[in-house]
Each structure stands twice: as structure tokens, then as C-alpha cells.
Amino acid sequence: MVIALSSQTFIGGYYRNFRGAFYAADSGLNVGRQALVNQVGSGFPATFAEPPIANPNALAATVLSSMLSTYGTSTSLNTGTAAGSWSEKF
């Protein structure tokens, strides 16, 4: 009985960690994707123009620079209101 309960507890813990890691990664990807959409979308003119983006290389360089400055390094999750809630970095 003790062995069965212990293994069930371990299985539940591993599943909980797996699920938490999946949702943390999914949230991070969605934050990055939305930031890209917002930045690329801001490069389009308000009215129709030909070509739609006057200088795509400049827009790409601006977006890359912004993304690297915002998300280019690992960010600690143990600061602010989430202090101590997650021991890893992403």
C-alpha cells in the first residue's frame, strides 16, 4: 500500500511539473509572438502605400534590436510579485 501510494504521488508530481513547464513555455512563446506582431504591424502605414513597408530591412533591424534588448537574455522569475514562485530562468 505504501509503495502504491508513493508511486502515485511521484507520478502526480511529475505530471504537475510537466504541465506547469508546458504552460510556462507556451505563455513565453505567446508573449514573444505578440510582441513581434505588434512591432511589425506598427511598421505598416495607416493608408495604403506601394510598397506597404517602405524599407523592410530597416523595419527588420528595428524589430530585431527591440526583441534582443527585451528578451535577449534570461529573465529571472524570482523578482517582484513572483519572488520565490519559480526557481528557474527562461
Percentage of residues in strands: under 5%
Number of DSSP helical runs: 2
**Could you name the ranges where pLDDT drops below 50 across 5 or more consecutive residues?**
none
Q: What is the string of helix and strand elements?
A: HH
Please report the distance between the alpha carbons of the first and last residues: 39 Å
| Helical content (DSSP H or I, runs of 4+) | 55-70%
Mean pLDDT: 76
- Largest sheet, described in full? none
Q: What is the 3D shape?
A: elongated
Number of strands: 0
Structural class determined from secondary elements: mainly alpha
Radius of gyration: 21 Å
What's the short story on this structure?
With 90 residues, this protein is an all-alpha fold. Helix content is 62%, strand content 0%.
Summarize the SSE layout with pairings.
Layout: H1 2-41, H2 56-71
Helix pairs in contact: 1-2
Report on this model:
The structure is a single chain. By secondary structure, the chain is mainly alpha-helical. The protein has a domain at 1-35. The chain has two helices and no strands. The protein has helices at 2-41, 56-71. The longest helix has 40 residues, at 2-41.
